[in-house]
Design a protein that fits this description.
The chain contains 2 helices and 5 strands. Helices cover 21% and strands 18% of the residues. Helix 1 crosses helix 2. The chain is of the alpha+beta class and 120 residues long. The N and C termini lie far apart (35 Å). Strand 2 and strand 3 form a beta hairpin. The protein is globular.
């Protein structure tokens, strides 16, 4: 397994990606966007970092969980790859989005999270 991923659909993904970019000075780790279908934003995380850990329901996890097969769309580093694009390309081997930072942003920003309007 190369990495885990978390997908947030539509404006949720863009909102969280904006936040992570601000918090990390523009280098949150690799983030992929898809402009068709669910308009998903995929955050690439270290292998095994989402397995058996609680995530808000809005976050779709992709990992090597036993009995599961996960496919994550990843664009080429160069050239045209529509409908996929690197919002934040990988900057080096082993560089990923920090799972706790991502989860904290999801909980704080999205509906139902403690910091979100209508959240607990």
């Amino acid at each position: 397994m190369q990495f885990d991923a978390v997908r947030l659909d539509g404006m949720d993904g863009r909102l969280v990606a904006d936040c992570l970019e601000r918090m990390t000075g523009g280098d949150p780790g690799p983030i992929v966007t898809q402009v068709n279908g669910r308009r998903g934003t995929y955050f690439l995380l270290p292998p095994g970092s989402t397995y058996r850990r609680p995530w808000p329901a809005v976050a779709v996890r992709f990992n090597g969980e036993p009995g599961q097969i996960s496919y994550v769309p990843v664009p080429a580093l160069r050239g045209r790859t529509w409908p996929l694009a690197w919002r934040c390309p990988p900057t080096g081997p082993g560089r990923f989005v920090h799972p706790l930072l991502l989860r904290s942003a999801v909980v704080a920003l999205l509906p139902g999270g403690p910091g979100a309007p209508g959240g607990g």
